[in-house]
Every structure is written in C-alpha cells, then in structure tokens.
Amino acid sequence: MTDAIRGRDRAPRKTPLISIRYIADSAFLIVVIYALMAVIYVAVQPSALSAYSIESLLNNSLPLMLAAAGATFVILQGGFDLSVAGTISLVNVTIAINPHDGPGGALWVLGISLAIGITVGAINGFIVAYLRIQSIAATLATMIIGQGAALIILKAPGGSVSDFMVYGLTGSVVDRLPFALVIALCVMAFWTVYSRTDAGRNLMAVGQDRKAAALSGINVRRTEFLAFVWAGAFYALAAYMLAAQTSTGNPAAGTPFLLLTFAAVALGGTAFGGGRGGVTASLFGAATLMLMQKVLFSLGVSSFYTGVIQGLIMIAAVLFASAVNHAARPKGHG
Amino acid sequence: MMSSDTGTPERSARTEDTRTSQRISPTVVTVATIYGLVLVMILASRLISPSFGGLSQLETILYLSSFLVFCAFGQGLVILVRGLDLSVASVITVGGVLSASLMDGSNTGLLHVIPTILLACALIGIVNGIGVTVFNMPPFIMTMASGIIVYSLCLGFTGGTPRGFPAPAMNDFMQARVFGIPSPIWLLVVFAALGTLVQSFSSFGRKLTAVGNNPEAAYVAGLPARRLIIAVYGISAACAGFTGILLASYANGATLRMGDDYLLPSIAAVVVGGSSILGGRGTFLGTVGGAMLLTTLSTILSALGIGQGWKTIMEGGVILLALILLRNQVFDGLRALVMRKD
C-alpha cells in the first residue's frame, strides 16, 4: 500500500500546475487512496460487497469520521483540540443514562448531546480565543475534566441506549442506503457550503496567516471561538452515533479517539498548523483508517502489526501531501 | 511547531519586564510559587488525615513523582524547541519490555544491557528528530506515528504479554535506602540538578532556548538547529526509556500499557511548571515542581476518598488554573508586589 502511494508520487508531476494545485487543496488524494484500498479489500474478500458488510463497515467508521470532521475545524484555524476524547466520553455516558425511546426520544437525546458538545466547545473556544491560552494545553485540561465528568455520570460501562437509536440509526434509510452513508454525505454537503461562506473563508484565512486575517478585518477571536464550537458539536454527533452503534455507555469511550482522530485528519492531508485541508478530506481519512484495518485483517496481517502499517501510511501521506503542496506553490518559494 | 503569532505579545511583554529590577526574575517567582503550592498542599493535607503532612508523605510523593520527572525532562526539552513528543508512552513501554526480556531476571551483563536499552530508545527519538527537521514533519504527527509503530512492534515482539523480569539488582535498587532515604529519591535529586544544569546553565541549553525562541534567528546566528533538535528528540526518547527501565524494576515486570499513564502528565508537568508550550521558555526545576504538584494532588485526592470522577476533574482543573494564572500574569502581579517591598 505504501508502494501505491509512492507510485502516485510521480504521476501528478506530469500534469499542469493547476491540477496539482487542485490535488493539494481538495480531498482528491485521499479519495483515491480510499478507492484503492476498497478495490484491494473487495479483491481479497468478495463478500465485502454484500449490503450487510457495507453497512457494518460504514457504521464502524462513522463515529471516527465525525470526530475527525470536528477536529478539522480547529486544526484548520491553526490549533489542536485534545478535548475530543473527553467530550465523546461525556456525551456517550449522558446518552446511556437517558434512554428515551422512539424517534422523539432519539431527537431529544440528540438535542442534549449537541448542547453538551457545543457547551464544551464554547468553553474551549473561550479559553483559547479570549483567555489566550495555547489550545493544546487548554484542551488537555478540558479533556481531563470531561473524562472526570463522564466518570461521575457513569462509573463503569453500562447504561442503555434506546432501541430506536440502536436499530434505527445503524440500519438503512431505504433499501441499500445505509443511514451512516446519508449522514456522511450530509456532512460533506455541509462542508461544501460552509467552506464557501464568509465564516468558512475566515476559518481558512485565520489558519493561513493570523496577522493578515486580522488586518483584513476578520474577527480572528470569533473565528477561533466558532471553530471550537463546531468541533464540539461534531464530537457530540460522533458520540451519539457511537452510542447507537455500541448500544451502551462507557466513561472511557472517547479515549481511543484521541490519537485516531488526529491520524485521520493527517491522513486526509489537512495541514497541522492550519490553512490547508478540509472536512471532506478528514472524513475520507477516517474512513480509510477503518477500512485499512479490515484490509490488513483480510490480507492475514497479524493484528499486532496493524499499527506499524498505520503509522507508516500516516507518515507517507503527510510527506506526500506536503510534497504535492510544495510542487503546487509558485516557483521561488521555499 | 505551531503558528507563533499568539505567543509573540506575551514574549515581548516579558522582555520589557526587566526594566525595574534584575534581582527577581519572573522564572524564579513562577518556580517558587509552584513549590510553595506543593508545600501548602502537603501541610494542608494534615487536615485530612493525621498521618499526612509529614516527611513520610513527602517521601512517597517524591518517590512517585520521580518516574514522571525523568520522562518530563525530555518532554520539556522537546517543548523548549517548539516540538512535542507523543511517542513517550510507547518508548517507556519499549524500555520496560526490553529490560524485562534482556535482563531476564539475572544481574549478569547489567552494565551492557542498560546502555543498550537507552541507545535503542534514543534511536527512536533520533528518527523522530530526523522526521521533524529533515522531512519537515509536524512533531505532533511524526511522534504520534512513530509511537504507534513502536507500540505495535512491542505488541508483535511480545505476542501481547511481555515475558521475563528485570535484574534483581535493579529491583533491590528501587527498594534500597541510602542514609534513610529511598535511592530513587537520590536519583531524582541528582537528575534534577543535572537537568537544571543542562537546560538552564549549559551552552547546549542556551542554544536550545535560542532555537525555541526564534529558529530563523538561531539559524542565522550559526546554530546547527537541525542537529540540536534531533539531539533533543534523542534525549527525550532516552529519558522515556530510562523511565521504562525504572518502572519495570519497580514493578518487577513490564506491561504493554505501562507508559500510558505518563504521556499526558509529562506534557502537563512541563506546562504547569511554567514552560511555554510554544517553546523558548521554561526551566527544569519548574517541571520538577509541576510533576510534584500533580503527584501531590493525586495522592491527596485519593486519600480524600472522593470518586475517581471528581479526582480527575480536579486534576484537570489544576492544570487549567495553572495555565490561566501563568498566562494572565498573576505571577507578574505577585512579583511586582514582592519588588515593592524590596
């Protein structure tokens, strides 16, 4: 798979600069990687094309995809948000102690989840944007506090999630159209619109150059604040779908998300430091990470060594993205 | 590592601050405040239990915080040069797993084995450093990826359950007392002294501070910034490996998750200790104080018998509080007060 990426390293150089620019700025690259991975998976395991396999793969991937989508907002404006782990744990246990059944109940629980996520995001945003505390340190603290709060709400894994969420949200909307896919498409559509609004452009501008953004009249603090709020909302969604998928609450539910979220964003080609990348790319980054586990498993790679390949692919993807970005820059810039 | 713009105002404020007096530097006040807080907390803990607040509690806290201090030294140096080392947890595991398997319960060859393990760990760090400098990888991703790779290799190497035991001599060392004080505490004192010497009073440390403050200026001034940064990541990984060896010796065995409890605390100790997460500013004595503060808080909260949840919340709260205090120049106000009395 590393070869597949390296192999593509040469191909785009022949094409004119404009399309390299396009590759650098869009989710193109990670979509190609995902597609390649999917082809390998189907070749090795033909049963992967069954409706059930596709549905379960998407259901497994969706929480990480949503978490990565949220983290992207913060990374695009040039920060880090470690609170993803704490927020997901907190929302997850809150859902597990509020098993309201039926569509109305699910909607009510969704409302509570979003309220918590947005509140945590707003607290993060306030601390970072207005108290001027470095995001990585501030969100380290709020992540720990969130995990503590989750432990207070639910001491050990347990609780219950309403049947409607467990069966309704992990099934299909209509035949062969998994609910998870619809949500992922909605997020992509949302980002396509959002990135073209003033708020979306401000987000990128702040990430590229804070001073220039401030000089051109962008409210930098409000943009930073908003990024954290969006992030919180998406973490809440991730926790909501996680609860639906696992049908239980776990005060440590968010912990595995901490590193994987950043891995997914990196794999999607969003630049750490801000200003380049996008939510769609992160969605595919997360989906690729999850698909990769399946591929490695079906290829017979010992699950012990999955991490080696994950790590190598992350490094290769980031190196490749920065090489493409380098090639896309006007000549004469370092 | 990150856009430096947010840190610039604060940094310039600090350089201007020398106008009144050179006698008390902000760093001294920050470090003194942290140790003051630790002392107050230890004394106040007497209210919780009569067995607390004494020398034996101080001994326990020093003993427990020593592990955190060892790995936080490397983390502090990496943060000083605008980096971050997320591979700490995995490298601690490497140190532990290697000492269990290489020493294999015997004292023979101990003098070869320990340097071998430290060197192996340092190599991981050097790879991190090369990735960060030569290949321009963001430290966050480079060290996270190498951490995942190394952990996965450990998992494969041990087949899930680490075998073997550290040398009995190492276990004896962890339990020995010299002049009535546990030997790891002596080690901590020596380490703190050496670390302070390296970070604040050696030319190496000053070069690192220069690189952290302004990499371009340091480069123009002729500092080998790349080599310095690579060395720093190597040191960080060696420190993590050292922590792993001691942890395995202490617990008389290694587990694959033994490093997990040290990754975020190592960053927290550095930050609570008054270092800037943006690099270019920080002292090792502050980090030692930060580690002690976190350990003290954790032992006191455990003794209070409050639930794990509240305990975790208060730990996070202390980190947040320390950040806000450090940022909003409460310490500067305090210093102004002290100076007025002069």
> Greatest contact pair?
A-B, 51 and 54 residues
Any idea of the CATH class of chain B? Mainly Alpha
Proportion in helices of chain B: over 70%
Instruction: Give the N-to-C terminal Cα separation of chain A.
Output: 30 Å
Rg calc of chain A: 20 Å
* SSE run of chain B: HHHHHHHEEHHHHHHHH
The CATH architecture assignment of chain A turns out to be: Orthogonal Bundle
Q: Briefly, what CATH class of chain A?
A: Mainly Alpha
Q: Kindly provide the radius of gyration of chain B, computed on alpha-carbon positions and rounded to a whole number of angstroms.
A: 20 Å
Q: Give the integer mean of the pLDDT values of chain A.
A: 84
Q: What name is given to the CATH topology of chain A?
A: ABC transporter involved in vitamin B12 uptake, BtuC
How helical, in percent, are the residues of chain A? over 70%
Number of strands of chain B: 2
Structural class of chain A: mainly alpha
Number of domains of chain B: 1
What gap, in angstroms, lies between the N and C termini of chain B?
40 Å
Based on CA inertia axes, which overall geometry of chain B fits? globular
3D structure, described in words:
The complex is a heterodimer of chains A (334) and B (342). In chain A, helix 4 packs across helix 13, helix 6 runs antiparallel to helix 12 (220-246) and helix 13 runs parallel beside helix 15 (306-328). Chain A has 15 helices and two strands. In chain A, 53% of the residues are buried. Chain A has helices at residues 2-10, 17-25, 28-44, 51-76, 84-96, 102-130, 135-153, 163-168, 179-194, 198-208, 210-215, 220-246, 257-267, 279-298, 306-328, and strands at residues 172-174, 177-178. Chain A starts with a helix and ends in a 6-residue tail after the last helix. The longest helix of chain A is centred in the middle third of the chain and has 29 residues, at 102-130. Chain A has one domain: ABC transporter involved in vitamin B12 uptake, BtuC. Chain B is mostly helical. Chain B has a single domain (27-333), classed as ABC transporter involved in vitamin B12 uptake, BtuC. The model of chain B is unreliable at 1-21 (pLDDT under 50). In chain B, a hairpin with a 2-residue loop joins strand 1 and strand 2. Chains A and B meet through helix 7, helix 13 and helix 15 of A and helix 6, helix 12 and helix 14 of B.
